[in-house]
Each structure stands twice: as C-alpha cells, then as structure tokens.
Amino acid sequence: MYWYLIQTKPRLEKYALENLERQGYECYLPRLPAEKLRRGKLAIVNIPLFPRYLFIRLGTNTSDKSWAPIRSTKGVSTLVRFGNDPAKADDELIALLKSHESVRQDAPERLFEQGERVLLTEGPFAGIEGIYQMTDGEHRAMVLIELLGKSASLRIEIKGVRKTGK
Q: What are the chain's domains?
C-alpha cells in the first residue's frame, strides 16, 4: 500500500474527501486552523494545507480496491502523475504531516499580524491606511492611524479592515 496524490476541483477538497471515504478509500487531507472572516466575524476554520490536493492510500495488487472509480468521484479532478507513474508519498511524510497538524491545532494562522499595514474599507476613515494592533473580544480590530500629524488608535469592526498587499 502506498499513498498517492489526488488533485481536486477548486475548493472541493473536503467534498472529494467525503466522497472517496464513502466509497471505502483511506484518504488524508492535511489541514491547518486559520482565522477567516465569516459573516463579518472572525472564525477559526480548518483550511487545506495544500489547496486542491489530498492523499489516498491504494494498493498495487489485483485484490486491492480498484483505482477506476477515483477519476469519476465528485470533487476529484485527477490522480497526479509524473509521466505515466502516479505520484507516491512515503508513510513517513504522511506521519510527519499528521504530527504537524496535531501540533498546530492550538495555534491558528492569524488573519492579521500585529504591526501589519492594513486599509480601512468602511466608515468615515475608509481609504486610510493604518497599522493593525490587535483584535478585541468583540470582533473589532484596533488600528493605529495617522490623523492630523498625530497617531490615533481606532477601534473598527474587523470586516472593515483588509490587507494592503504591500
């Protein structure tokens, strides 16, 4: 038995995983916790570590589960290949990914980092750049802006802040 790599359709990793597991395949989708905006509020969600990819454990013997249904499974795009050979992953790699995933469950990737430049997109200060300071418990962000030559701290709803891309 080896682990192979499957490419999924865009943003359908979980759907492909569920459909493959429903057919009896052993699969693994490495995920990491991350902050995301959901309905204007910060939420911790598990996002795929490798967007559009998941691992499937398959055998090479004729008595093993057939590979044929994989391509037609909903959410699956293709089995990744290098030439004619399917891309294999070692058990050690999968074990390492699983251990890394369990360690990271307590430390989600933050949407904004302290000191990061952000752009205010809502309210009277829309269009002004600031420096992200922190998120308070009420789903608001504290942002430092330059106003009339002085620094001012401003609390704004988190949905009204986005990264500048700089």
A: 2-104 (3.30.70.940), 117-163 (2.30.30.30)
Q: Could you tell me the CA-to-CA distances from 162 to 13, 70, 82, 95, 145 in Å, in that order?
A: 26, 39, 39, 36, 14
pLDDT in tens, 65-104: 778 889 899 999 999 999 999 999 999 999 999 988 877 6
DSSP letter for 158, please.
G
pLDDT (tens digit per residue) in 138-149: 667 788 888 778
Contacts of 68 (CB under 8 A, 6+ apart): none
Residue among 116, 114, 112, 98 nearest 32 (CA)? 98
Cβ 135 vs Cβ 113: under 8 Å: no
3-state SS of 13-42?
A: HHHHHHHHHHCCCEEECCEEEEEEEECCEE
B/e letters for 91-118, b = 16+ CB within 10 Å, e = fewer, are eeeeeebeeebeebeeebeebbeeeeeb
The Cα–Cα gap between 141 and 126 comes to 14
* Contact yes or no for 143/133 (Cβ under 8 A): yes
